[in-house]
Design a protein that fits this description.
about 350 residues, eight-stranded mixed sheet, alpha/beta, 14 strands, 12 helices, six-stranded mixed sheet, about 40% helix
Amino acid sequence: MSRKRLIIGIVAASLLAIGTTACSIGGDDEATKTVTVSETTSSGTSSGKTVKIIASVPPTDHGWLGAISKDAQAAADQHDDVDFELLQAADADSQAQQIEQAIAEKPDVLVVLPQDGAALTPVAQKAERAGIPVVNIDRLFTAPDAATATVLGDNYQIGVLAANYIADELKCKGNVVEIQGLAGISVTTDRTKGFTDTLKKKCPDGGVKIVASQPGDFNPDKGLTVMENILQAQSDIDAVYTHDDDMAQGVVQAIRNANRDDEMFLTGVGGSEDAMKQIEEGGLYRATFLYNPNMAGTAVNMARLIGLGEGFSELVPPEVPRQLVVPAAVVTKDNVKEYEKYAFN
């Protein structure tokens, strides 16, 4: 069997219950492939060897990150041969210290969803140099040798979908506000670039204008404050593209407090229960764009395979991209019932 076929087989085996239709691997290289995903999972599997996996993530007390932690734990619980520990870090500095301590424990694999991919790259590289493979989730490290494998949502596609939706709703004519996530991280950069690139292609005459673009840090309170300031500065707004459903609740509050909800519509990202309900009700909140948080479960399954010596670390040389990309979906009033089962609170 060729290396390429081995890679694809391993990836397909690790994709359990993603909840989306397909995933893509890498870019234009020998590992590029689309794999159809099942929603069924295996349970109680054991290899006879115990694989120690430590996962480090931002706080998971609510929202998409809360779903991330639950799905990671659920995936680990399905394997009798996995010893799993989930750590939460309040900021990038404490997460780096956390990973330093994890390295000292010598786990078989680390799974990391970084607060900030750039800030966490050095400590991830340290883990790799220590012989501990790292599986990177969602927010990319900035060096290829910082991770053995990567599982991420297609955040550029999120921006593409948002631009297409908003441009179609506005018929390529109107003023748009963008409330971004955390400044500087790959998720935010990609969601913005996908949005601006697509608006230029979709409405080449410049009929859709981005009149304000500011980070809201994925935080509802910050979203509220930022949107309040924008509403005071901008008298004509037709649509608001927010990078996160939780943050969008603050934006919604600001718009309603200003009695301007009949003037504009809003889109979010993530698939929260609140967003789904508001989309179903109709009105201000028109759409959200999501990829399933069970990508964390996929990362744990992949980490297990790597820990067993069956994964990317032994089959793919370091210079080859090893990325699993979860595609995004558009949720509107027309199809919200289909996606409610993926909603998180």
